[in-house]
Design a protein that fits this description.
heterodimer; A: mainly alpha; MetI-like fold; 11 helices; globular; B: alpha/beta; Rossmann fold; 6-stranded mixed sheet; 4-stranded antiparallel sheet
Chain lengths: ~230, ~240
């Protein structure tokens, strides 16, 4: 028990002393996850909108696939991306493996189905009359789309929050495609896994606490934003 | 603005909604479309209002200068009130201001016109209420205000007073009479209320089974319908 308390004390010290390594890891984690969720949100919401309103062949199959992919095991995503991005893979020439870009791709792949499937449910829950009403008042297709998206905003925000939660907590995929290289591709979750392996619980706990705190902060900001936009 | 529908047909999944319908709504007239449920009235209205494309046939809008091109500029001279709850999940003010804002109307003018139309529909005290918090009568009045605020040349209404009490019905009818007819608007309104059709409309179009059965001056169709089917509908014999 005293060992655990000691770990927490050291962890707290690392946080308040603004340890350089720690800040580097936090900064990379945030930039990778936020970039990934922004891409996944833009692509996911647009895809969900098209799926809702355009004639899509095999719409039912696509929705089933999206729902299935919401639970994609990160290590499987990491493995597939590794095969695609490795030197002998089809996109090996891009030289992305073991870079932050590869980690962003992996996290985007994980977040996209969550954002798209949940946004699709929210958009289709908007009464069909809403879009038609906007068009009937002289709106362009784009303006009518914005009305529908605005009506579905709570659900869309929730989907983005769920996607962000997924990518920030994810470890398997970024570990495989990022390689956990110190100072370059090491993020909070891969660092926690490494420090645990090495028996350095202080840093692992410090990172765990920060990860929880950051998730809480980001979700609080999104929640406030959601309420503000919701009027 | 005249609206002419020529040989319009429309089906959904093999089920015919409209079969070779031709009808015209002359500029500045108040037209009531009547008929039993499933007779194709709403489909006809959506096609006439350019919200849906027909499978065959064409919709032609004309004014003094000839045939109008179907584009955004024409669509912005039309307004539609759909049946049921079609208000945006926003405040009453923002719902009504929508048609003006998408036309790029100046903020001050938007405010003036929204408050004016809300006043006419006795909704001034509801301007900042959420649209979802309104009673059905108030919501329907907001839907009418939202359609009228941009002063369309052509107004389509799909059962605007369905299930409303006489007070709400009277408010909407008064505004339609004053603003709509006063400004020479072409109005097409679907209604199941024959008394309302007689109170408001100059012309009545009776539909049955996806076809236009009869169109005539209001007084004539109610006093001396030409077609047996119209007579049976108006006298209740179609049901009993």
């Amino acid at each position: 028990m005293s060992e655990i308390l000691l770990s927490f004390r050291k962890a707290f010290h690392l946080i308040v002393s603004l340890d350089r390594d720690l800040l580097e890891i936090i900064s990379l984690s945030l930039s990778v996850s936020i970039t990934a969720i922004v891409i996944a949100a833009l692509a996911g919401v647009a895809f969900a909108y098209l799926l809702s309103f355009k004639d899509f062949p095999a719409r039912g199959v696509i929705i089933s696939v999206l729902n299935t992919f919401m639970g994609l095991p990160p290590v499987v995503v990491g493995l597939f991306l590794y095969l695609i991005l490795s030197r002998s893979g089809p996109l090996g020439f891009l030289g992305l493996l073991y870079t932050p870009s590869a980690m962003i791709i992996a996290q985007t792949v994980l977040a996209f189905p969550i954002v798209a499937a949940m946004s699709y449910s929210s958009i289709t829950a908007v009464r069909p009359n809403i879009r038609l009403a906007a068009l009937g008042l002289g709106a362009t297709e784009m303006q009518a789309s914005m009305v529908v998206l605005k009506d579905a905003r709570y659900g869309i925000f929730s989907s983005v929050m769920a996607g962000l939660g997924r990518v920030m907590a994810e470890v398997g995929a970024v570990l495989i495609v990022g390689g956990n290289i110190a100072g370059y591709t090491r993020v909070m979750t891969t660092a926690i896994a490494l420090e645990y392996d090495r028996g350095d619980f202080e840093l692992a706990i410090a990172l765990g606490m920060i990860l929880l705190l950051l998730s809480l902060c980001i979700n609080s900001v999104l929640y406030l934003l959601q309420r503000r936009i919701g009027g | 603005m005249n609206v002419v529908l020529k040989n319009i047909s429309k089906s959904y999944g093999g089920c015919t909604a409209l079969a070779d319908c031709s009808v015209s709504f002359p500029a500045g007239t108040f037209n009531a479309v009547i008929g039993p449920n499933g007779s194709g009235k709403s489909t006809l209205l959506r096609i006439a209002a350019l919200l849906e494309r027909p499978d065959s046939g064409e919709v032609v809008y004309t004014d003094g200068g000839g045939v109008l091109r179907v584009d955004l500029s024409l669509r912005r001279r039309i307004a539609v009130v759909l049946p049921g709850d079609s208000l945006f999940n926003d405040s009453v003010f923002n719902n009504v201001a929508y048609a003006l804002r998408i036309r790029g109307v100046e903020r001050r003018v938007v405010s003036e016109r929204v408050h004016d139309i809300l006043g006419r529909l006795r909704l001034s005290d509801k301007a900042h209420a959420g649209a979802r918090s309104l009673s059905s009568g108030e919501a329907q009045r907001v839907a009418v205000a939202r359609a009228l605020v941009a002063e369309p040349r052509c107004l389509f209404l799909d059962e605007p007073t369905v299930s409303l009490d006489p007070v709400n019905t009277e408010i909407i009818e008064t505004v339609l009479r004053e603003i709509g007819r006063g400004r020479g608007m072409t109005i097409v309104m679907i209604t199941h209320n024959m008394f309302q059709a007689q109170r408001l409309a100059e012309r009545v179009i009776f539909m049955y089974g996806g076809r236009i059965i009869e169109e005539a001056e209001c007084e004539r169709i109610f006093t001396a319908p030409e077609k047996e089917l119209t007579s049976r509908f108006l006298t209740g014999r179609m049901v009993w």
